[in-house]
């Protein structure tokens, strides 16, 4: 998988680019390393954390780290 979308898991996002962990934390997802977060989709995580999903995906998809 090379394109991030609403069904991409947090774990996949971090495996694609470890710098994405910091981006997720900047959005308020402080527990990106916990086991359940690894299998949680971005859609699920955004709902739990009250984050705008489109903004999150855009930030994670940017080439700059």
UniProtKB/TrEMBL annotation:
Pfam families attached to this UniProt entry: DUF1858
What InterPro entries does the database record attribute to this sequence?
CHP03980_redox-disulphide, DUF1858, ScdA-like_N_sf
Which range is the signal sequence, renumbered to this chain?
none
> Domain named DUF1858: which ranges?
4-57
Q: Which domain of life is it from?
A: Bacteria
Write down the NCBIfam families for this protein, in alphabetical order.
prismane_assoc
Q: What name does the UniProt record give this protein?
A: DUF1858 domain-containing protein
């Amino acid at each position: 998988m090379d394109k991030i979308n609403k069904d991409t898991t947090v774990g996949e996002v971090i495996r694609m680019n470890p710098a994405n962990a910091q981006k997720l934390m900047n959005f308020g997802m402080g527990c990106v390393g916990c086991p359940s977060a690894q299998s949680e989709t971005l859609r699920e995580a955004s709902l739990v954390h009250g984050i705008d999903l489109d903004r999150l995906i855009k930030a994670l998809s940017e080439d700059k780290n």
